[in-house]
């Protein structure tokens, strides 16, 4: 279940949030030029994002999953954002020496690597450590060994981006029975008793992507979606709101949804299949950084293909395609901030600073205070990082994640 209630009290990137909020409330196509906190990609995990290799396996234990990277507290945290309060104050009540397993969708996706880097920065500030562990394919099966590894390591918390809403629940229940707190981020799980850190309001992401594309194609023509894994909770939730929003555009017709599994090669294959199956295609929404960057790269070298592309992308990957005119506008949030917030949320939950109740509060380090939303009738507590940011030629140079 995905909860769309905002519970954020104070912003990500304090400087950009107000402008982004204004942009959001004025309509998704509004442009903002404010920088976000962005900057730091200096942790060991985040540094790998530029060349996108897997976080390499540091352990050969028999139960060790494909990619496992332990990051001790060697880096000094991001330290690049204006913020309220010191890390020491933000860490009030949080135990030292915590071990938090970050289990991303996979260890190779640069977006996930950035998010894990944010988590590492958080735990470093808090005197604990992050172990990044996952597989190389976006399946629940590839994540289960990492949950088992967290149980064996007697981790204090797991922060997971679910490749499937339901299939991870038996393993996560085992972890919870062993006293491990569970936080989902990026892509939710349906299991009980966890906190979901949503990167932005789910409905807003879905509707704004449709609005962005509609603006560019004059609200007319066949469109398709190039998604991530077919079981990905986050993409499926966004697609649900895209479909709802499309009812406002009677001349835009969704003709296909294809799944690239957040693998560049698979994304390219399904993109090419899409183009040949739908010769009249006018637009593609790719709500995944892997899908949109793959499609943008393809379109930038196939200028004869006149298909408008938008979706969710990393500014660092998309910059060349904005510059060469392949893409006009796309959206995202700061993945490093997402991981950082999840790291603080997990550490505070594992320390008993708050419980999973409506209105409960914790401090997200330099990002400031956050409040849980658990409305009556809802099954899970949610915190929202902040609004999505639209990137285009006017502001792309200001972002480096
Ligand atoms: C991809 C992943 C991730 C999603 C981003 C937008 O990197 O699918 O889960 O949040 O895109």
CATH architecture of the largest domain: 3-Layer(aba) Sandwich
Order of helices and strands: HHEHEHEHEHEEHEHEHEHEHEHEEEE
Distance from N terminus to C terminus (CA atoms, Å) equals 29 Å
Task: Characterize the overall form.
Answer: elongated
CATH fold name of the largest domain, please? Rossmann fold
Runs in which pLDDT lies below 50 for 5 or more consecutive residues are 1-66, 71-85
Question: Would you state the CATH class of the largest domain?
Answer: Alpha Beta
Characterise this structure.
- Helix content is 35%, strand content 18%.
- It is an alpha/beta fold and 401 residues long.
- It folds into two domains: 18-199 and 334-386, Response regulator (Rossmann fold), CATH 3.40.50.2300; 202-332, 3-Layer(aba) Sandwich (Rossmann fold), CATH 3.40.50.2300.
- It has a seven-stranded mixed β-sheet, with helices on both faces. A four-stranded parallel β-sheet has the order 8-7-9-10. The chain has a two-stranded antiparallel ribbon with strand order 11-15.
- Helix 10 links the parallel strand 9 (281-286) and strand 10 (308-311).
- Helix 5 packs parallel to helix 6, helix 7 crosses helix 8 (233-246) and helix 9 (264-277) crosses helix 10.
- It is elongated, with a radius of gyration of 20 Å.
- Bound molecules: alpha-L-rhamnopyranose.
- Alpha-L-rhamnopyranose binds at residues 105, 109, 111, 161, 186-187, 228, 234, 262, 288-290, 312.
């Amino acid at each position: 279940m995905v909860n769309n209630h905002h519970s954020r009290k104070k912003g990500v990137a304090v400087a950009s949030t107000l402008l982004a909020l204004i942009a959001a409330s004025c309509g998704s196509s509004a442009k903002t030029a404010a920088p976000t906190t962005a900057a730091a990609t200096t942790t060991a995990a985040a540094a790998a994002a530029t060349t996108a290799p897997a976080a390499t396996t540091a352990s050969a234990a028999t139960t060790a999953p494909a990619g496992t990277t332990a990051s001790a507290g060697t880096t000094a945290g991001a330290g690049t954002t204006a913020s309220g309060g010191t890390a020491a104050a933000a860490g009030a009540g949080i135990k030292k020496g915590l071990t938090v397993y970050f289990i991303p969708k996979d260890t190779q996706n640069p977006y996930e690597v950035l998010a894990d880097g944010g988590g590492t920065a958080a735990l470093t500030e808090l005197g604990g450590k992050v172990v990044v562990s996952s597989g190389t394919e976006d399946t629940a099966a590839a994540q289960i060994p990492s949950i088992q590894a967290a149980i064996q390591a007697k981790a204090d918390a797991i922060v997971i981006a679910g490749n499937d809403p339901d299939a991870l629940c038996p393993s996560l229940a085992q972890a919870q029975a062993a006293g491990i707190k569970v936080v989902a981020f990026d892509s939710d799980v349906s299991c009980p008793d966890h906190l979901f850190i949503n990167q932005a309001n789910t409905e807003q992401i879905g509707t704004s992507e449709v609005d962005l594309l509609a603006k560019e194609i004059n609200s007319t023509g066949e469109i398709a979606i190039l998604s991530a894994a077919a079981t990905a909770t986050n993409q499926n939730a966004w697609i649900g709101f895209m479909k709802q929003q499309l009812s406002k555009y009677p001349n835009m017709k969704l003709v296909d949804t294809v799944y690239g599994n957040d693998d560049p090669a698979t994304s390219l294959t399904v993109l090419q299949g899409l183009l040949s199956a739908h010769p009249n295609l006018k637009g593609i929404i790719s709500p995944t950084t892997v899908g949109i960057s793959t499609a943008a790269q393809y379109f930038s070298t196939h200028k004869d293909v006149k298909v408008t592309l938008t979706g969710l992308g990393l500014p660092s990957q998309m910059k060349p395609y904005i510059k060469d005119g392949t893409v006009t506008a796309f959206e995202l949030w700061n993945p490093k901030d997402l991981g950082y917030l999840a790291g603080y949320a997990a550490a505070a939950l594992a320390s008993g600073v708050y419980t999973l109740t409506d209105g409960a509060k914790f401090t997200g380090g330099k990002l400031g205070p956050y409040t849980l939303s658990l409305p009556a009738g809802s099954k899970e507590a949610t915190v929202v990082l902040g609004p999505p940011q639209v990137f285009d030629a006017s502001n792309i140079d200001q972002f480096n994640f």
